[in-house]
Amino acid sequence: MRSSLFALATLAALVSGVAQAETATYVVEPTHTFANFEIGHFGAAVNRGRFDKKEGTIQLDKAAKTGKVEISFDVSSINTGTPAFEKHLQSADLFNVAQFPTFKFVGDKFTFDGDKVTSVAGELTLLGKTLPVTLKANQFNCYQSPMLKREVCGGDFETTIDRTQWGMNYGIDWGFPKNVHILAQVEAVKQ
Confidence class of residue 15 from pLDDT cuts 50, 70 and 90? Predict the structure, then answer.
């Protein structure tokens, strides 16, 4: 009888712990979320740009230390500050916006240090090809927004990709680098 009561109490504690773990959904806040890129230009300078239109959701269970992010970027919203450069980036030479109007990151392997996300591994779909990518978190925090009166979670993430793995080969023969540094700032509002 005593062992049955102990087993029942243990089961109740486990169920209670499971009930406390809850996945929350967050919607990407577009004024605080950008994907920026940097790529060398003949060793003399660095070309930079960002994508201004994006949408996505993040599911996060801080207790279970799990999550999923899905975010897509509109390639036609590329912004470098130079319209002619933007037009070339959108051409079939590079992002081929006519055939591939968006690129997408889906990540479901979250790594935590305590309650802070340290990386998110997933897949980047670009130019119709999907390959693994891990975004390292340089910082991450959740806070109660005084303006929105809701919880907001976000961070600054980075990775470096070899663009030729996705078939973006323009300029390689001229010495343009294959590696592109990606900096992503993301903030999302709890729903």
Answer: very low
